[in-house]
Specification:
This protein is mostly helical and 157 residues long. 53% of the residues lie in helices and 5% in strands. It is built from five helices and four strands. The termini are far apart.
Length: 157
Amino acid sequence: MTAMKFVAPEQAPDAPEIILNNSFWPDIDLAEFRQVMRTDGTVTAPRLRQVVLTAISEVNAELYGFRERQELKGYNHLSDVPAEKLAGESQLIHHYRNAVWCWTRAVLNERYQDYDATASGVKRGEALDDATGDLWRDARWAISRVQGRPHNVVELI
């Protein structure tokens, strides 16, 4: 029988690591994501980068039509599109960032539920399932808000 080796989570990097987006959408800071979304070193830097790149790609694809319409109006950056300000920044940037962050965190929750097979590990996995559904909803709502559309929830009975 082979003994299992425990590998402790890495220390989450503190230094900002910026993922450059295309010219219209804002860049994403992985250190800020880790802090806001409470993601520790269990998710390695390369894995986080890969998931964030996928989330950016998916959110950008969802918002492609919105981007095209704004560029036709002469807005070359999301920050140029007229919108209310929150903490000195366009609320559209806040919603865009939230969409990417929630998308990323939802994927991470689905992949990293827990390595613990004990009863407490199972319970934590169930709590993550609930949180993951909320994150997918929040990502959808943030995408709707960027586009200026209302959000709604449809539940099958």
